[in-house]
Design goal:
With 149 residues, the chain is mainly beta. It contains 2 helices and 11 strands; from the N terminus they run βββββαββββββα. The longest helix has 7 residues, at 142-148. The model has no long low-confidence stretch (mean pLDDT 89). It comes from Clostridium uliginosum.
Length: 149
Amino acid sequence: MASNEMKILIFSLNDEHYATDIKDVERILGYEEPTVLPEAPSFVKGVINYQESILPIISLSKKFNFGEDKDTENRKIIVVKRDDKKFGIIVENVYEVKDIDNDLIEVSPPITASISRTYIKGLIRLGNNIVILLDLDKILSLEEEQSIF
């Protein structure tokens, strides 16, 4: 992979295409219903058992104010690693891992304020699709992280 390329994982959420740097992803799990925790933040769906530890599961649909997660048969949990902490995010579908040239990443326009621009690294045009490149490292604020871990 050339130095100006990035390997991304493309997935769907709210019927839109999203992506993240594959370096932020530990693995992709089949969906399992999390155990609900009382008084957890609204976007925390619950926890699951993962590699002999407890993995918090986050609903990006709730986090981004899209409403409830869609109950699709292709639903997956992406395990995100962030320093020594891990959490899972629920996505509707996982499509592919793809190498892209960094030059394809465009700065997100001001209209993307509906999802805080801190989460968005940029937009990628792939064929007829626009893929929103998320920065999973910034999905949780410090306060949110402290309430979860």
